[in-house]
Amino acid sequence: MNSTSPDDSTPPAGLDKRDWIAGLERGVSIIESFDDANPRLTASQAGQRTNMTRTAARRYLLTLQHMGYVASDGKLFWLTPRVLRLGQSYLESARLPRVVQPFLQRVAAGTNEIAYLSVMDGDEVVYIARNGPNRSMSTGYVLGARVPAQVTASGMLMLALRSDAELNDWLATRQLTVFTSHTIASMERMKLELARIRAQGWALSEQQLDLNSRGIAVPLRDRHGTLVGALNITMPMGHESSEDAVARVLPVLRETAQAMRNLI
Fold this sequence. Notes:
Layout: H1 22-32, H2 43-50, H3 54-67, E1 70-72, E2 77-79, H4 84-93, H5 95-111, E3 114-121, E4 124-131, E5 146-148, H6 153-160, H7 164-173, H8 187-200, E6 203-206, E7 213-221, E8 227-236, H9 242-260
Antiparallel strand pairs: 1-2, 3-4, 3-8, 4-5, 6-7, 7-8
Helix pairs in contact: 2-3, 5-9, 6-8
């Protein structure tokens, strides 16, 4: 019996038709359609957000409900905590977060600040490992937290280290979101800041997302020199000047990133 749907005839570029399961793609897109602005959706709304018909979206939602990933009151649907298993599976199975943990502990001990490993996912930074003192969540991120790359030290660093073509494409196709009075809101200014970060090889971001937050980041590269993420510190503002914070933290971050190169 042929279970291929009509959409299976147009797989994405680079993937053979035999290897593409369109239903899996749509099921994941349904899960991703929920966000802070849309925590509960009708089947019609989910369909609109995923370019599906209401009927198709409802079938996927009901399947996800049967699997325990979605709950419903008969009209509205919402995600359940079971969805967190997907992210937890990555954190528990990926090698990089495990390898970096003792090094983050070294950074935290040497600076008395919260140290992170972050990676890029689309236009967002995702924090996949952390170590350091417990503080108010206003100055730190939980594992798996996602933050716009444009307003974080690690995100701006990883953007700056992209190829010229990739960076130019990003600058030409994105809209900058303003979070505070210190957020870089001009693409021209962002371009200059990213060029400065690329030239110096590290990044500092202050008060761009939160008026009480400062971040400092350095690139994490593997033994072949390939960028795999960023090591960064997040600290509260007000205790010291930018210059003093960089002088205290940057050498520790750089030394730790260098020490890790042969292990990843």
